[in-house]
Design a protein that fits this description.
Number of domains: 2
Shape: globular
Strand content: under 5%
Helix content: over 70%
Order of helices and strands: HHHHHHHHHHHHHHHHHHHHHH
Length: about 450
């Protein structure tokens, strides 16, 4: 009882501190959304994060397989070393001289998730979240939802950075919803998961990238950007890779209009993809197509073993270029449309399916109420979002065989997808159409 009360007080205390920062920090002062609204969104995110904790505590009760607990629990092993062998704690935290049998025996084999069942050449992103939780334990004293509050603030910071970029390009109130209020982004971006840290790193990278293009980046922002590049690299390398493709192409094509923009995006994408496909000639063991095919195979094996409820039928990847091209339409379909809301009665599946339906309706609206002048003003930015989303969704669709996992994995691209639709949508046409529907008699006169 005392433990619960002290945990609750810590949650309230840190929440108050972060709200104070929202009101006082220049970073959160901007056009398009007030500090009061941001504070409300922050509280909403904390509520979503606590709801996730309750769901996996009282409904899905197998703590050993819940991502929100696995890395938190393992971080205690690292954190405890601070009081017994402080040198070991800092070596594990910074990855310095820790790759040996001593650390394996005393720490890593004690953890349940430091090593993956299926190890590959790709960096193990679990290490980053274990280290993060081992640092936050210095402030939480082991109270789980303090970690929720910290992740929510970092996630909000990253989303605010993305919002700043989007709103500077399209002063529309719809941008608030596209960035902060999409249900999957709100829910999965608010738990003690990689996605919260990913939004923080990705948001800072995107914001400072556009500042670089305008030659107004401070040296402190350069250091933070380099840190975030490393953070995203170790969390989700493929997200960083596809974002860099869009960034390089946008830097080259941002002052162009017409077909030249698309050509430049295609050239950059083709060049970087070709480099990636030949990476194994430079770095042995990094055959991208083989790694992706093995990842799909491992995903199928893992989900079959645990009898995942939202397993979807996928075509087995052939580890060659044409095999991936043949699977591309299926991969995009799965990432964009799975799950359908009518395929299950489970609340999570239904809600995710309704979000997908809403996204498709928004896409239809953007096509029906198409803004003809977007090619003259926003074409490079639309393609920036489009290429990032398509390439990210392809990678997810190629390798992921569980619809619930697809919903979570694709949220880094979801704000970019909705923002692209906002850029293409002509709100004047929408207003005229609905004013006609609302008053047909006036129109007839």
């Amino acid at each position: 009882m005392v433990h619960s009360i002290s945990g609750g007080l810590l949650v309230l205390g840190y929440t108050a501190i972060f709200i104070y920062l929202i009101y006082k920090s220049p970073f959160f002062g901007m056009n398009g959304v007030s500090r009061r609204t941001l504070s409300g969104i922050f509280l909403l995110k904390i509520g979503a994060g606590i709801a996730m904790w309750a769901l996996y505590t009282y409904y899905y009760t197998d703590r050993a397989v819940a991502d929100i607990f696995k890395f938190f629990d393992d971080s205690k092993v690292m954190y405890d070393a601070l009081w017994k062998e402080p040198g070991d704690y800092f070596k594990m935290l910074f990855g310095y001289q820790n790759d040996n049998e001593y650390f394996n025996k005393n720490y890593y084999r004690v953890m349940m998730n430091w090593y993956r069942e299926y190890e590959s050449s790709v960096k193990n992103d679990a290490h980053t979240l274990i280290r993060f939780n081992a640092v936050v334990r210095l402030f939480s004293f082991g109270h789980y939802n303090v970690h929720t509050v910290f992740l929510c603030f970092l996630s909000l910071t990253g989303l605010t950075a993305i919002f700043k970029v989007f709103y500077s390009k399209a002063q529309s109130p719809l941008v608030v919803g596209a960035v902060f209020l999409i249900p999957s982004v709100l829910f999965w971006g608010s738990g003690v998961l990689k996605e919260g840290l990913l939004f923080f790193g990705l948001g800072i990278i995107v914001l400072n990238y556009f500042k670089i293009l305008e030659s107004r980046l401070k040296w402190t922002e350069i250091i933070l950007t380099l840190f975030c590049l490393l953070l995203v690299f170790y969390l989700k390398f493929y997200v960083l890779a596809v974002m860099l493709i869009s960034m390089i192409a946008y830097a080259w094509a941002r002052k162009e209009i017409g077909s030249k923009v698309l050509i430049k995006y295609a050239v950059v994408s083709a060049a970087i993809i070709a480099l990636g496909l030949n990476l194994h000639h430079i770095i042995p063991g990094y055959n991208i197509l083989e790694l992706l095919a093995v990842k799909q195979k491992d995903f199928i094996g893992m989900t079959t073993a645990v009898e995942a409820g939202s397993l979807i039928k996928v075509t087995k990847l052939e580890p060659n270029f044409w095999g991936f091209i043949k699977n591309a339409p299926e991969a995009l379909y799965h990432s964009l449309c799975e799950p359908w809301f009518f395929t299950s009665t489970k609340p999570f599946i239904v809600l995710a399916g309704l979000e997908n339906l809403f996204m498709l309706l928004c896409a239809v609206a953007a096509l029906v109420f198409f803004r003809k002048k977007w090619k003259d003003t926003d074409q490079p930015l639309v393609l920036f979002c489009l290429f990032f989303v398509i390439q990210l969704f392809l990678l997810i669709g190629w390798t992921t065989v569980v619809s619930g996992a697809i919903v979570r994995y694709k949220i880094p691209g979801t704000p970019f997808l909705f923002f692209m639709l906002i850029l293409m949508l002509d709100m004047d046409k929408v207003r005229r159409r609905f004013s006609i529907i609302a008053s047909p008699k006036k129109e007839l006169q």
